[in-house]
Design goal:
The chain has about 130 residues and is α+β, with helices and mostly antiparallel strands.
């Protein structure tokens, strides 16, 4: 199945450790969404926003990888699944169930996301923008 990562799962080493079958395919952009950080975990989330873009990584994952991600993302309590189509193919990602106010991420978490942006060759300006929202 196809999985869209936009936060800490962009980090290739971490993603591989968590999901042994995962394969990074390419970077893609999710349109009409914006990146933010929220909850007591100060973790990445996406929310609908017209004419906005969330860059991320498209991964191929197995069923057992998905189960591991479900546990890591605290599905269905903290995150729920969101599906969209990319060139006719169904893609799964996670979005937080409660849209609490913005919380600046911890340094440690932010560094993992920044490393992921480098791993996937994403434009850091999207990340910087999310941090001042």
């Amino acid at each position: 199945m196809l999985y869209f990562a936009y936060g800490s799962n962009l980090h290739h080493f971490q993603m591989k450790r968590r999901c042994k079958d995962s394969v990074f395919l390419k970077k893609i952009k999710l349109k009409n969404f914006k990146l933010t950080f929220r909850s007591k975990y100060r973790a990445a989330d996406i929310e609908p926003k017209k004419n906005s873009i969330v860059p991320g990584g498209l991964f191929e994952i197995s069923k057992s990888d998905e189960k591991k991600l479900d546990i890591y993302e605290d599905f269905p309590i903290l995150y729920k699944k969101y599906y969209f189509f990319y060139y006719g193919k169904k893609v799964m990602t996670y979005t937080m169930t409660k849209k609490t106010p913005f919380r600046f991420p911890t340094e440690r978490y932010l560094n993992v996301v920044k490393r992921g942006y480098k791993d996937c060759k994403l434009d850091q300006k999207f990340l910087s923008k999310a941090l001042i929202s």
